[in-house]
Design a protein that fits this description.
This protein is globular. The chain is built from 40 helices and 14 strands. A hairpin with an 8-residue loop joins β4 and β5. Helices cover 46% and strands 5% of the residues. The strands form six sheets. The chain has a three-stranded antiparallel sheet. The protein is mostly helical.
Length: 1131
């Protein structure tokens, strides 16, 4: 039945020509083998199920899971002519024939492996459409209690299919009876995960074109189809595609590949029991193993440990229950568990209100497996911290006791046991293992990698998890080949000689053993191991392991923090030295030198490693310190400008003034914020801000938020440790300037989540036609911005995400999605916190501004005047008549500059010829120019920056709490380099980019590219122009030109490019404003809905439920029949 269903289902998967579809929709006719596999006996490509990366899939395969259940029962029977796994393989081969049998095993490998690879991609954050819902499905698939019936069953099917799928794996028409399909499995997994090229593997068809043509003619696999409209006679070769596009995602996928190979090798069916007592003993050992790994992550209660029975078989639970009845008939299952706990754990008494917990014994750690598949990655991370470290041994050349990183796997079923040698001798797997060690531990870190396949792996980011799993895999290889014997005449049948293996061409008269494996893997030329000439002359695998074993790799580009990893590498080195003279000569002569070197550098190494371990904890405080020091530098710069302005004479200090909103940053006791633009950046524009000396600050003026938000990571707002600041002020000005640029990028922001939404536009469904009256309303999505209420510094957030990027409970799916560090709510953005005055939500008064009425007025006008408390609200005419924007109509002394400010009118001068700074400098003329991107950033810097008097007040509080030991701001004067964007501006720009990108992608997916190109929507004029001007290029088959270069036929000057960039930024700004408007409307609608629902339920206004609705949305009530929400008045 399964064979018939698979055969029918496979016809639905058809190969697609590469030229006629997008890459993620491309389904190749065949997949390429790696060159290193083809050099060891495989064909250059393989037949597969044509699956694209965007092909839909399901986690449920009921027929396949039924077969897995049958195979489990079959593994419990002794293998003979009538029953057992080998008997089943013979019956399938005879009953179906070679071709049909190959199709059966192809399906048994492809369908489960597709789910395994997609689950790995979800964990890597590459599947985002369903958000957390898909992540929950992956957890159910791969973690207890459902993993036994899903992931474990798929793993068994893949292991069984590897035993049976051998046809067309090599160029030989008839496979050998001792062959297995390990090369099929490894290369297919690399392609399904999308890490084939990232691992540095080269495609064999590209290197052996003639072999590819010959093998396609033989029918070993399908040739690549060509597009129907293609007239080219060029040969199309198989290719590979990956959905990942950044190093972080690739590294997670690489970790998943190594993890799949490890559990494939370790978790094999066990030996069939000979009788009931033997079966009971095996069940007890399996329970023993499950309990130890549960306790490795921390103490557990007895009820928590009872969950281990969910991942054990029915027969195991039945036999353990019968054994437990002999101890306690009333609780047989608990009695069996209690007996195991007495062996591996100690009972720890708790308080009266809590149950006692069991903690793992030290001796039980010897069977802990860092890749055990029945506990989560989060539990493994905790276990790695709790795991006892190797004993320090000063006499050892490694500085510690060399011990294996993983224990020896349980004894496997005789038919499946061979897979351990096959997996650890597969050429592609070993090439990946070498690549992982080389990218972390190589000594020549400055070598050019531009021509290296998969050079992205050698970028800055590294993964200790991948490094540990490479050591894990090599340790399994040592275990597997230790059992080999020279006198084994049937060694190929016991594993290690199939196509794709490093021993495929083994010509010796005796069987290969561990010493041969050491020479072929650990001591081999890296160019042979990887199949790439770039590695010619590089260090071999044993040298890299030796470097890792000594202090975690002091001479490499990476230092392993887990000493168990370096201890495992040392164990491999010692084992290799025992079984190979060449390995002994490589390791032992250098041990004495390495020991002396490690002693000499031990103090420095300990200091460096301690700094690296503490870096994650210190980054939050350092980012807070950096941001405040940058603010201090900016304040000194402002004071220097004020001092220079105050020392000028009235004749030379007159400059045009740009009015600012009254008390938007302060009140009568504060000055306005300034925008300083240098002549080189602003094209000769004069300063357009008024300066006045700062009076004594009596108190911090009222702010819009009465309680300033604090960073949830460093627990600070902008207060710095004054002692640290004073220490840094003792340094030279050059060092301060180098740090000021980085510190200025830090800003406090609210954690938020942006998502496309159509709820307020009538819900989802198909979009209306362009001619429909609903088209302007429902054509495009809105952007909803939701805040969880927690604030965090941008640098604190980046440091936090970098620290937990490899943790399973923090990885969501997208690279730009994360969980709030405090409430764990799904988030993807930061909304900058802008500290504004409470007057932003108050109505304006008629005394906001006092303007000059004649030239005899003082040079510094008082722009901020507090209105009388009894002043009535002005009407629009009164308001306009009292503002600077009305001045050009009422006063002939001030004129509009044609851009964004007012200028003092001078006799005989137009706005285009106004003196730049002083009437005495008549030779310098002001040249008007359009506003550019830098001007926009400068305006945002001034508007979003926290006022100086607020920063002073916060620092004064810090100095008081420090015992009053403050420092003078002018003790160490220095000049700060002008910055293009403050931290708030950087965060705001990222937010605008996210709003723009999310809405465009959502509209493109919802409407389709063709429909979207007819009407791009609001605030996307640059997208419209790019599409229109590149239409001719698309028809001609040329490459599209980016905006704004596509608009002009000549090269753009820097000023013109800045102008066009400003247009694009303003479009994104309007789109961000629209997103906030949409969000507010959604909240208002929800508030009115909740209010009406509460009232319809018959509750009165004094009901606590109604009060909770009002307080939740911050409203005073709902009027006009529930249609208008009334906000609270600010006092």
């Amino acid at each position: 039945g399964v064979f018939a269903w698979q055969k029918k289902e496979m016809h639905l998967y058809q190969a697609t020509p590469l030229q006629s579809t997008e890459q993620h929709k491309f389904a190749p006719g065949s997949l390429p083998f790696s060159t290193v596999s083809a050099s060891n006996g495989t064909a250059v490509a393989m037949h597969h199920l044509p699956v694209a990366q965007n092909t839909s899939f399901s986690f449920h395969l009921p027929l396949h899971r039924f077969i897995a259940g049958c195979l489990r029962e079959l593994c419990l029977r002794r293998d003979d002519a009538l029953s057992g796994i080998s008997s089943l393989l013979q019956r399938l081969s005879i009953g179906l024939g070679d071709k049909d049998c190959d199709h059966l095993f192809l399906g048994l490998m492809e369908f489960p492996l597709l789910i395994v690879s997609r689950a790995a991609q979800v964990r890597a954050g590459l599947w985002r459409r369903n958000g957390a819902g898909l992540s929950d499905q992956v957890l159910n698939y791969s973690e207890p209690p459902f993993c036994r019936t899903m992931r474990d069953a798929d793993l068994l099917l893949v292991q069984f299919s590897v035993l049976g799928r051998t046809l067309n794996q090599s160029p030989n028409s008839t496979p050998q009876a001792t062959d297995v399909g390990m090369a099929f499995f490894v290369n297919l997994l690399l392609h399904r995960l999308g890490v084939f090229e990232f691992c540095g593997l080269r495609r064999a068809p590209d290197e052996f074109i003639s072999r590819y043509v010959e093998e396609t003619e033989k029918g070993l696999y399908t040739a690549e189809p060509k597009a129907k409209d293609s007239s080219s006679s060029d040969l199309v070769l198989p290719s590979s595609y990956s959905p990942a596009n950044d190093q972080a995602s690739f590294l997670v996928l690489l970790e998943e590949f190594l993890y799949c190979i490890i559990i494939f090798t370790s978790e094999l069916p066990q030996v069939a029991p000979s009788d009931r007592n033997k079966h009971t003993e095996q069940a007890r050992q399996r329970l023993h193993r499950e309990v130890v790994h549960r306790l490795a992550s921390g103490p557990k209660t007895h009820s928590e440990l009872l969950e281990v029975h969910h991942v054990m078989s029915h027969w195991d639970n039945l036999l353990l229950s019968e054994e437990g009845k002999l101890i306690n008939p009333d609780d047989a299952t608990g009695a069996a568990l209690g007996k195991v706990l007495e062996e591996v754990a100690d009972r720890k008494s708790s308080s009266k209100l809590e149950a006692d917990k069991w903690g793992i014994k030290r001796d039980a750690w010897k069977i802990y497996d860092p890749s055990f598949h029945h506990i989560s990655l989060r539990m493994h991370q905790t276990a790695a911290e709790n795991r006892p470290k190797p004993v320090v041994d000063k006499a050892s050349p490694w500085g510690q006791t060399a011990q294996p990183y993983v224990p020896e796997p349980p004894e496997a079923h005789p038919i499946f046991d061979r897979l351990r040698r096959d997996a650890t001798s597969d050429a592609a797997t070993l090439a990946v293992a070498y690549r992982v060690l080389h990218m972390h531990m190589r000594e020549k870190t400055d070598r050019d990698t531009s021509h290296l396949p998969g050079r992205l792996a050698y970028d800055k980011d590294k993964s200790e998890t991948a490094l540990a799993r490479a050591v894990h895999l090599l340790t399994l290889g040592v275990y597997a080949w230790t059992k080999s014997s020279r006198s084994d005449d049937y060694w190929r049948g016991h594993g290690g000689g199939s196509p794709g293996s490093i021993f495929y061409d083994w010509g010796g008269n005796v069987a290969p053993v561990l010493s041969d494996w050491v020479e072929a893997v650990l001591l081999a030329d890296p160019a042979i191991v990887t199949g790439t000439e770039w590695y010619r002359g590089e260090e071999n695998l044993l040298t890299l392991l030796r470097r890792l074993a000594i202090a975690g790799g002091e001479a490499g580009s990476f230092t392993a923090q887990d000493v168990c990893v370096s201890g495992g590498a040392a164990w491999i080195c010692e084992t290799a030295a025992k079984h190979s003279f060449a390995a002994k000569d490589l390791v032992r002569p250098r041990l004495k030198d390495a020991n002396a070197s490690s002693k000499k550098m031990s103090l420095a190494e300990r200091q460096r490693r301690s700094r690296e371990k503490a870096m994650a904890m210190m980054r939050a405080a350092q980012s807070n310190f950096a941001g405040m020091n940058a603010a201090e530098l900016g304040e000194k710069e402002d004071e220097a400008v004020e001092d220079s302005s105050n020392t000028q004479s009235p004749e030379t200090s007159s400059s045009p003034h740009r009015p600012v909103r009254a008390t938007s940053f302060g009140s009568t006791y504060s000055t306005t914020s300034s925008i300083q633009t240098s002549g080189s950046e602003a094209g000769g524009l004069p300063s357009t801000v008024m300066m006045e000396s700062e009076p004594e600050v009596a108190a911090v003026p009222p702010r819009l938020l009465k309680e300033r938000p604090r960073c949830i990571i460093c627990s600070e707002f902008e207060v710095m440790d004054t002692a640290s600041v004073q220490k840094e002020h003792a340094e030279d000005g050059e060092g301060m300037r180098k740090r000021s640029k980085k510190r200025a990028e830090n800003a406090l922001g609210f954690v938020g989540y942006i998502q496309p939404s159509t709820v307020l536009k009538g819900g989802g469904g198909p979009p209306p036609d362009l001619g429909s009256p609903l088209s302007p309303v429902r054509e495009f999505v809105g952007n909803h911005v939701a805040l969880c209420g927690h604030a965090v510094h941008s640098e604190c957030c980046e440091s936090y995400l970098a620290t937990v990027s490899q943790r399973e409970d923090r990885v969501i799916g997208k690279r730009d999605e994360f969980k709030c560090p405090l409430c764990q709510r799904l988030s993807n953005c930061l909304v900058p916190f802008i500290d504004v005055g409470s007057d932003w939500v108050q109505p304006p008064t008629n005394s906001l501004y006092c303007l000059p009425t004649s030239d005899s007025e003082t040079e510094q006008e008082k722009m901020v005047v507090d209105p009388p408390a009894s002043a009535p609200p002005p009407d629009l005419g009164q308001f306009l008549s009292s503002t600077p924007w009305w001045v050009s109509r009422t006063s002939s002394n001030v004129i509009w500059d044609g851009q964004s400010g007012f200028l003092q009118q001078s006799s005989g001068l137009s706005p285009e010829s106004t003196p730049e700074s002083s009437p005495h400098k008549s030779g310098r003329r002001r040249v008007r120019r359009p506003l550019t991107k830098k001007d926009l950033y400068a305006a945002w810097n001034a508007m979003m920056r926290t006022p100086r008097f607020v920063r002073k007040r916060l620092r004064s509080r810090a100095s008081q709490t420090d015992g009053g030991s403050g420092y003078g701001r002018d003790d160490h004067p220095h000049n700060s380099e002008p910055e293009e964007s403050s931290g708030e501006t950087v965060v705001w720009r990222r937010f605008m980019d996210q709003v723009s990108d999310l809405s465009y992608r959502a509209d493109s997916k919802r409407l389709g590219d063709e429909h979207l190109h007819d009407l791009f929507g609001e605030f996307r004029h640059y997208v419209v122009e790019k599409y229109a001007y590149n239409m001719a290029n698309r028809f001609a088959g040329g490459e599209p030109t980016e905006w704004p270069f596509c608009v002009f036929n000549e090269p753009l000057s820097d000023q013109r490019r800045q102008e066009m960039s400003r247009e694009k930024i303003l479009s994104k700004l309007l789109l961000a404003i629209q997103a906030f408007t949409y969000s507010c409307c959604c909240e208002a609608f929800e508030a009115k809905r909740a209010y009406r629902k509460s009232m319809e339920s018959g509750r009165s206004k004094s009901d606590s439920a109604l009060d909770s609705v009002l307080s939740k949305f911050g409203i005073a009530g709902v009027t006009c029949g529930g249609e208008v929400a009334m906000p609270h008045r600010w006092k």
